[in-house]
Amino acid sequence: MLELKNICFTRDNKKILDNINLRIDTNKFIVITGPNGSGKSTLAKIIMGIEKQDKGKIIFNGKDITKLSINQRANIGIGFAFQAPIKFKGITVYDLIRLSVGKDIKKAEACEILSKVGLCAKEYIDREVNSSLSGGELKRIEIATVSVRNSQLTIFDEPEAGIDLWSFNNLINVFEEMRKTTKGTTLIISHQEKILNIADEIILVNNGKIQEYGTKEEMLDMVLNKPKCCKLGGTNSGNNR
Amino acid sequence: METIDKELLKKITDSEEYKGAYNIRKNGKGIERKITENINIVTKEGNQGIDIFVKANTKFDIVHIPVIITQSGVKDVVYNDFYIGENAHVDIIAGCGIHNDECNDSEHNGIHRFFLEKGAKVKYIEKHYGQGVGKGKRLLNPMTQIEMKSGSNFEMETVQIKGVDSTIRTTKALLMENTNLVISEKIMTHDKQYAKTVFEVKLNGENASTHVTSRSVATEQSEQQFESKVIGDSKCFGHVECDAIIKDGAKVIAIPQIIANNVEANLIHEAAIGKIAGEQLTKLMTLGLTEKEAEQEIINGFLK
After folding, report:
1. Quick check: A86 and B282 CB within 8 A?
2. Which residue of A46, A225, B102, B197 shows the fewest CB atoms closer than 10 Å?
3. Is residue B192 within 8 Å of B218, Cβ to Cβ?
4. pLDDT for A192
5. What does residue B147 show for φ and ψ, rounded to 5 degrees?
6. All domains of chain A in start order, with CATH
7. Residue B160 — very low, low, confident or very high, per pLDDT cuts 50/70/90?
8. A109 pLDDT band (50/70/90 cuts)?
9. How far from B94 is each of B58, B112, B187, CA to CA, in Å?
10. Calpha distance A178→A156 (Å, rounded)
11. Residue B70 Cα, gap to closest chain A Cα (Å)
12. Does residue A228 surpass a pLDDT of 50?
């Protein structure tokens, strides 16, 4: 489904991504984990087209999408949930859901979409997507706008960032539900054990390279017990598929 | 009424039929009027405007006073005074639409004065709009003066949709004790248009409060200026928020002034001018919108 070939990204003389090669299959729930600053978020943004790699190719469903813009990638089936949800002035929750769906929808339909991420829709639908909403609320709205698109590949950049434990536990339920019902591949960047636990596969990124890639069963123990992981700075020759 | 009249009226009042009282003015003359049991409208001497009287204790009523100018070269100055009785509750919908297809300038200067008695409650909506392909300019200079007695409330929504070449919009208010004034302004300018807003609010009585919000979008070569002055003379609260999106070669100037003459006065001014945030565009593009579509949605939301 998605293939990254020789992706390199350097900023301020620092190699953020160092020749990443990766193949991701369809209908999988995959978690990318690794230390802070290892290049996970950059990798996610490069797949969506938000950042441009210095070198390398991106193949999606057999087509080279390296030169496609963000919206072109969105329209061929890639979705992206931001680590820090974007705030607006004047744009309401309803507006954002309507834009996500891509056509005019009734408020009742928008409410139904919001309810799926555990928000009491009537209280939120006409509110502006601004700082008056809490981190947890913004995160749920972000997830609603992304999941409603039913993209073939949906990327979540650290969904746990910036929210309290209580909100996080509720989010896990949302992801577990998505895990059961969503078709396509979900790619989540996360450090959280609860999210790692619901993965099919785990990718460990370190120092801009893919350290290891395997099934949850193969990877979980290593990731949780040796967080500094295992001969850091190793080559990119891990179990890359 | 001609089709163009109806079109302009719909643009500025959002409706074709008016409930309650109304007075329609076209090219400097009153053309239609209706009064109700609670609202009386009287022509001033010399047809220079109207006096609107809302009876005390009116539970709720509406009055529309739209102005349209379809004749090129007309300069219309009108003085409208609103007398709102004690504890009366009324919505007032005003505004001016100019259609100018020719080369002479068309201008409307509406001077509106509001006198609110104790406990009165007013919602005042005014929209300004210009259209037509002529080289003649469309000029609008509304002046609003509000005097609020104890316990009264005034909410003002003022919108300049598009097509106005030059405008100076002045609003002055005097608030006595336990009063609340909320002003919300939305302006969009394009081409070489000029828009200046002047707000001056005097919080005279104890527990007087005001909240002024201005959201504007300046595009192309247009220029906007926002001046606000809030004066706190007693234990009071004032909050002014000026937010502008700037594009192309436009220019925006914000001049805030808050003056506290009393140790209990709590006054805040916030002003922000900037281009559309890149991350907002990116978010909407991840939902499949082109950059141009994303920009339009952000502006539409901002001015909604």
Report:
1. yes
2. A225
3. no
4. 86
5. -120, 120
6. 2-225 (3.40.50.300)
7. confident
8. confident
9. 20, 10, 16
10. 12
11. 33
12. no
Pairs across A and B, CB distance < 8 A: 59
Q: What is the DSSP letter of B257?
A: E
Looking at the DSSP bridge assignments, the partners of residue A215 are A201
* Angle separating helix axes A135-147 and A165-181, nearest 10 degrees: 10
Q: Are B238 and B258 in contact (CB under 8 A)?
A: yes
**With 80 as the cut, is the pLDDT of residue A164 above it?**
no
Residue A87 corresponds to which tokens in the numbers above? Answer: 């705030």
Structure tokens at B227: 């001046």
Q: Which ipTM value was assigned to this complex?
A: 0.90
The token pair that represents A210 in the structure block: 């893919």
Helix (H, G, I), strand (E, B) or coil at A70: helix
C-alpha angle B166/B172/B177, rounded to 5°?
160
Q: Regarding beta strands A14-24 and A153-157, do their DSSP bridges make them parallel or antiparallel, or are they unpaired? A: unpaired
Q: In terms of C-beta density within 10 A (0-12 exposed, 13-18 middle, 19 or more buried), how is residue A200 classed?
A: middle
Whether this model's pTM surpasses 0.95: no
What order do you get walking across the sheet with A153-157 strand by strand?
A78-81, A153-157, A185-189, A29-33, A201-206, A209-215
- Taking residue B17's Cβ as centre, other Cβ atoms within 10 Å add up to 6
Model confidence at A69: pLDDT above 90: yes
B17 band by pLDDT with thresholds 50, 70 and 90? confident
| Residue B51 neighbours by CB distance under 10 Å | 15
Cβ of A79 within 8 Å of Cβ of B284? The answer is: no
Do A188 and A159 meet the contact criterion of CB atoms below 8 Å apart? yes
Structure confidence by residue, pLDDT tens digits, A166-202? 777 878 888 888 778 778 899 999 988 888 988 999 9
- Record: contact B288-A80, CB cut-off 8 A: no
Q: Which of residues 16-75 of A touch B (CB under 8 A)?
A: 48, 50, 69-71, 74-75
Digit-coded pLDDT (tens) for B207-258:
999 999 999 999 999 999 999 999 999 999 999 999 999 999 999 999 989 9
Residue with tokens 């890359």: A240
3-state SS string for B80-126: EEEEECCCCEEEEEEEEEEECCCCCCEEEEEEEEEEECCCCEEEEEE
Which chain B positions have a beta carbon within 8 Å of A149's beta carbon?
287-288
Beta strands across the sheet bearing A63-64: A14-24, A2-11, A55-60, A63-64
Classified as helix, coil or strand, B3 is helix
d(CA A125, CA A148): 15
pLDDT band at A234 (very low <50, low <70, confident <90, very high): very low
CA distance A187 to A204: 13
Residue A239's pLDDT band (boundaries 50, 70, 90)?
very low
The three-state secondary structure class of A144 is: helix
Query: Quick one: pLDDT at residue B47?
Result: 67
Label residue B120 by pLDDT band (50, 70, 90). very high
